[in-house]
Specification:
The protein is of the alpha/beta class and 214 residues long. Helices cover 53% and strands 14% of the residues. A six-stranded parallel sheet has the order 2-1-3-4-5-6, sandwiched between helices. α7 packs across α10 and α8 packs across α9. The longest helix is centred in the middle third of the chain and has 15 residues.
Length: 214
């Protein structure tokens, strides 16, 4: 029996782009756009009304996409947040991830890439556009080159094992199943891992792990 399609809300103040994204998403049998708006206020109202699986936000829309993400993340933590934007600014990427976004996707991606990214995010696999990921990793490496101790070396064997699975795209629940541990235990380990690696979120932790060959 086929699962119901994922319910998506799109918020962007450019109608032509918003409509184009909606058409692209609706081409997938696994995705269904259930609402569209153009402001941060619209985003919150639509999420409150529809309780979608994913909300796609533009950073520069009226009211601010980052502020919308923070409010939605606080009020509706079950809704996964994705930034769909033209901004490649490091500070915007960092602010979005800090606000709780699981995905940061640059406008211009193909319909297939967007659908694949949304399906992965629905399964709690974070996504960041490859070109941005490479730049963030380079910036992180530059910072680390000024440090004598590699934070990876501070992890315990169990923490390394968990980080390796996270770097493969597994959610906390999937990691717990793989290691026969409770999801809340994995969350506790992840908090320790993020602190030890001096990173803000699991996206940066996964990037660092991949670079180290974990």
């Amino acid at each position: 029996m086929q699962n119901d399609p994922l319910r998506i809300v799109i918020v962007d103040d450019h109608p032509l782009f918003r409509d184009g994204v909606a058409r692209s998403i609706n081409e997938s049998v696994d995705l269904d756009v259930v609402g569209a708006g153009e402001t941060a206020a619209d985003a919150f109202a639509l999420v409150e009304k529809e309780l979608p699986d994913i909300v796609c936000l533009d950073i520069s829309m009226p009211g601010g996409g980052i502020e919308a993400a923070r409010r939605i993340g606080t009020e509706f933590p079950q809704v996964k947040i994705v930034m769909l934007t033209v901004s490649e600014a490091d500070e915007d990427v960092a602010a979005a991830l800090d606000a709780g976004a699981l995905g940061y996707i640059l406008k211009g991606v193909s319909a297939t890439q967007l659908s694949d990214a949304l399906l992965g995010i629905a399964a709690e696999r974070s996504y960041i556009s490859p070109e941005l990921a490479a730049r963030l990793l380079n910036a992180k490496n530059s910072r680390m080159s000024r440090e004598e101790i590699d934070p990876i070396d501070t992890l315990t064997k169990r923490e390394e094992q968990i980080l390796e699975l996270v770097a493969k795209g597994m959610s906390n629940k999937e990691v717990g199943g793989e290691l026969n541990l409770q999801e809340k235990t994995i969350k506790h380990y992840m908090s320790n891992i993020l602190q030890k690696l001096h990173v803000r979120n699991r996206v940066e932790a996964a990037l660092m792990a991949r670079e180290r060959g974990l």
